[in-house]
Amino acid sequence: MSVEQSELRLRAMGVQHPQGAIIEATLEKGAAGCLSGPLDASVFDPCSVPLAPTDLMRRKARGRAVAIAVTAVLAMAILASLITGVGEDSTTGSTLTPIGRPG
Length: 103
Fold this sequence. Notes:
There is one protein chain. This protein is mainly alpha-helical. The protein has helices at residues 3-12, 18-27, 53-84, and strands spanning 29-30, 33-34. A two-stranded antiparallel sheet has the order 1-2. A hairpin with a 2-residue loop joins β1 and β2. The longest helix has 32 residues, at 53-84.
């Protein structure tokens, strides 16, 4: 992206002084060192983020733990509703209507 395109986009977003913002961005030092331009592509490259195998395994294990916890909570909620008899018919004591009786 050129400086002119950057200035036009900044103006469209409502920045009062886009030239000052561009100059400030060129003077800032990023994690990779001094930027060669206002929008250096190497700074914003998502592929440059180093991931170790342990990061991926930890993320997978965390997801598995969350799934197990959600399943356990749902199972306990179902068991609690069965034990307390939520939804029971007060006259017959069951939730099902016999076939011969109108419901």
